[in-house]
From TrEMBL:
Keywords: Carbohydrate metabolism, Lyase, Schiff base
Domain of life: Bacteria
PANTHER family (alphabetical): 2-DEHYDRO-3-DEOXY-6-PHOSPHOGALACTONATE ALDOLASE-RELATED (PTHR30246:SF1), 2-KETO-3-DEOXY-6-PHOSPHOGLUCONATE ALDOLASE (PTHR30246)
Keyword Cytoplasm assigned: no
One Pfam match: Aldolase
GO molecular function: 2-dehydro-3-deoxy-phosphogluconate aldolase activity
SUPFAM superfamilies listed in its UniProt record: Aldolase
Protein name: 2-dehydro-3-deoxy-phosphogluconate aldolase
Keyword Secreted: no
Species per Swiss-Prot/TrEMBL record: Herbinix luporum
Length: 320
């Protein structure tokens, strides 16, 4: 998968926006960035699209900006010249797709049938937009279509919202979801960019699903670790279970047999999608200890520590 599509996959959500007036472009882009989603698909449904992309690119050069509802090669040129990094179309137009492929412009055309997917494969694509997602059968349809096309991935758009977002993203052949619930037209027209920031932040929070997994306590040695875990078992009935490097008391308390990362210990935070969580936290300026990565037997990342400590505690992410 190319770099742009890989970044979209880490983003997880692509806000789909329609702008009637270019004056709203920069404050809307700021609202999305402040909300934790420096990404936008600006649809060519209005005459303001080209100028809006240009203004957003100038104000936020690091933002991932694409053009949506692109129907012609002329619109491709206008979008790319204005600063769009990727193209999205509602259907699969072989002329438009070929034009983009020949110029190494990432494009995800809309597909809703196996025939569409086969046409996309023939044109050399590895990711397509599934549109209109809910109306075309939703997640069940994507799973059914994905089965025979083992290398194809999907970006569903249309009917995606806060309530069904993670059910889509849980399916590994979905790289991201397009949605407009955090950038509703009435909010943009009213200039309520604070509300857009709030909804965007809520969308990211819901996607990542951060929750406390356990608290780790640094003991000086195995004997002290056993005593501490035994105390929690006696006090609260948290069953003690010894492992290679630590002893758990229930699921919420882990006592290290010898001091590990963190002056006092560590806090484990679980997340729906650990690699997306890393991406989003890095965008906020946090850094990670690459040497602390842990993988499961299938080679999937399941844990990693941040470099930063908080109140004497190290923090690590854990895949749910």
């Amino acid at each position: 998968m190319n770099e742009v599509l890989s970044k979209i996959q880490m983003m997880g959500i692509v806000p789909v926006i329609k702008l009637d007036d270019p004056k709203d472009a920069v404050p809307l882009a700021k609202a999305l960035c402040d909300g934790g989603l420096p990404c936008a698909e600006v649809t060519f449904r209005t005459a303001a699209a080209e100028e809006s992309i240009r203004l957003m690119r100038e104000a936020f050069p690091q933002m991932l900006i694409g053009a949506g509802t692109v129907l012609t090669t002329d619109q491709v040129d206008k979008a790319v010249n204005a600063g769009a990094s990727f193209i999205v179309s509602p259907g699969l137009n072989p002329k438009v797709v070929s034009y983009c492929v020949e110029r190494n412009i990432p494009i995800t055309p809309g597909c809703s049938t196996p025939s569409d997917v086969e046409a996309a494969i023939e044109l050399g694509l590895e990711v397509v937009k599934f549109f209109p997602a809910e109306a075309a059968g939703g997640l069940a349809m994507i799973k059914a279509m994905a089965a025979p096309y083992v290398n194809m991935k999907f970006m569903p758009t249309g009917g995606i919202n806060a309530s069904n977002l993670t059910s889509y993203l849980d399916f590994p052949k979905i790289i991201a979801c397009g949605g407009s619930w955090m950038v509703k037209d009435d909010l943009v027209k009213a200039g309520d960019f604070d509300k857009i920031t709030e909804l965007t932040r809520e969308a990211v929070k819901m996607m990542l699903g951060f929750e406390l997994r356990h608290v780790g306590i640094n003991a000086s040695d195995e004997s002290q670790a056993d005593n501490i875990a035994s105390s929690f078992e006696k006090l609260f009935g948290f069953e003690k279970k010894a492992g290679n490097s630590s002893i758990f008391a229930g699921k919420a308390i882990e006592v290290m047999k010898q001091p590990y990362l963190g002056e006092k210990g560590h806090i484990a935070i679980q997340t729906n999608y650990i690699e997306r969580a890393i991406f989003h936290l890095q965008n906020q300026g946090f850094t990670f200890n690459e040497e602390s990565k842990k993988y499961d037997k299938n080679g999937r990342l399941v844990a990693i520590y941040l470099n930063e400590e908080f109140g004497g505690f190290a923090v690590h992410l854990v895949q749910k």
